[in-house]
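tmp note - HPP transmembrane region domain-containing protein
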Amino acid sequence: MPSKAASNLLDFDIDSHLNPYIPHNRLDRLPRSISRWLGYRHDESKDPHALIQWISTFFGVFLGLLTVGAVYNYAPAISSHNPPIIIASLGATAVLEYSAIRTPLAQPRNAILGHAICAIMGVSISKLFQLSPNFEHIQWVAGALSCAIATVMMAMTNTIHPPGGATVVMAATQPNVIAMGWWFVPVLMVGYTLMMGVALLVNNVARQYPVYWWTPQEVGGKLRKQGDGEEVKDMEGGERTGSDASSERTLGHAVPELKVYTHAADEIVLTAERMQLPAHVKVTADELALIESLRARIEAAHD
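out:
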């Protein structure tokens, strides 16, 4: 079996290194008239009837792409670079941002970083292949290679966003996009920012968007080194946009003897020294006391 260090490398998760330094969600400190439009809900949010969702989706997709098309066509700073009327991958993003708004693929982190990674990778690989005098005959190879690399990079950074696949292929194979060069990256991000603004306005009328800005897991803990060299995160609060984060903020301090962790797996692990909970599981003080009694029995059995 591989060593612990090798296993950590083989199962690398960038969030385990980044999340302790991501600031806690502070939307609850804003006035509700503002925080609502940023996805925060004081009480648990439920989706409205399907008909309301369909109407919201229609207006979201229409207004989002209409806004992008208008800016691309009539804003001199952008139209001067002759971008596509509407970048195709933004149409695919619209399906996620205005319809499947609760999926991880539609959340801001995935969409923003996914598009940015794909655009940068597509332009980079295209520029590299353009050094060849036979570029017109091998640009399809550039499209395949750039998409493969960008997909792996999105997976490594937990920012998978399927429409990014169209973004990276366009950057490497479409003549009008290739002619834009590095301008394609900011033009694309301007388009996505406009769609994001429309999504916050339209989706939050009757629904909730985003569900989270960075991750549904805990963020903001301070790492401290344990004697065995393992890094442990204090449970100081999550990045969730709902009111249920408050119980998680005190979870790691309710029973000093028991170190509490969260992870992405759908399983509960209890040993004599620690407990691991799925990130979405909430535990009350009474439940935690019961778990502590079970831990004490496990510890006594080993003595």
